[in-house]
């Protein structure tokens, strides 16, 4: 299991550039949290990178993420990686979020998407973005309406981090990769 192989798998199954960038954003957040928690940055990054790789082909539940999980199992990915990816879907009640890896993926997924949406409407992109502005946008129900705000709140709570701190941490992680994420203006 290495990043190059994971990226090749992502590109094989995902053509949509925005979805690819979303997974790259979650990867950045996961790697940053792995460093913070003293965990395996490569493994955590791969979880973030592959969490939605099958979504374009199988967007409906429970096919997403179960079809992707089956592909990962066939290719020999570790059980904890597959479990984390499956556990980011609330509707898979037989796959609860138990480990810190599981909880971190869930906490970063929707938030990374929302941060990207916020950056797209800012004159400076993600540069200089603060948690306060993201929280303000979260109150606007019509803005990035497909993003589940409850998942963002629940994710921070399950991870055991204060919401403002969590938002800023993910902003900072994604900022380091602004160009690759299409968030640099």
Describe the structure.
The protein is mainly α and 185 residues long. Helices cover 65% and strands 0% of the residues. Helix 1 (3-13) runs parallel beside helix 3 and helix 7 packs across helix 9. The model has no long low-confidence stretch (mean pLDDT 95).
Secondary-structure element order, N to C: HHHHHHHHHH
Helix content: 55-70%
CATH class annotation: Mainly Alpha
Oligomer: single chain
Kindly, what is the distance between the CA atoms of the first and last residues, rounded to a whole number of angstroms? 34 Å
> What's the alpha carbon Rg, rounded to whole Å?
15 Å
Question: What's the architecture, going by CATH?
Answer: Orthogonal Bundle
Principal-axes shape call = globular
Quick one: how many beta strands?
0
Major sheet description? none
Q: What is the helix tally?
A: 10
Q: Poorly predicted ranges (pLDDT <50, ≥5 residues)?
A: none
Total of domains? 1
CATH topology group: Hypothetical protein af1432
**Strand-pairing-aware structural class:** mainly alpha
Beta-strand share of residues: under 5%
Rounded average pLDDT: 95
């Amino acid at each position: 299991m290495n990043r190059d192989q994971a990226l090749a798998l992502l590109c094989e199954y995902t053509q949509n550039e925005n979805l690819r960038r979303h997974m790259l954003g979650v990867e950045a957040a996961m790697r940053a949290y792995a460093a913070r928690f003293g965990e395996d940055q490569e493994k955590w990054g791969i979880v973030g990178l592959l969490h939605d790789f099958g979504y374009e082909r199988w967007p409906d539940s429970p096919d997403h993420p179960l079809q992707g999980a089956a592909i990962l199992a066939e290719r020999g990915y570790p059980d904890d990686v597959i479990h984390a990816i499956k556990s980011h879907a609330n509707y898979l009640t037989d796959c609860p979020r138990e480990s810190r890896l599981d909880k971190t993926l869930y906490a970063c997924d929707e938030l990374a998407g929302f941060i990207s949406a916020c950056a797209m409407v800012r004159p400076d992109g993600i540069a200089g973005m603060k948690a306060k502005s993201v929280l303000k946008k979260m109150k606007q129900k019509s803005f990035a309406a497909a993003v589940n705000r409850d998942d963002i709140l629940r994710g921070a709570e399950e991870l055991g981090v204060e919401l403002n701190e969590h938002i800023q941490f993910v902003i900072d992680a994604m900022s380091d990769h602004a160009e690759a994420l299409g968030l640099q203006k």
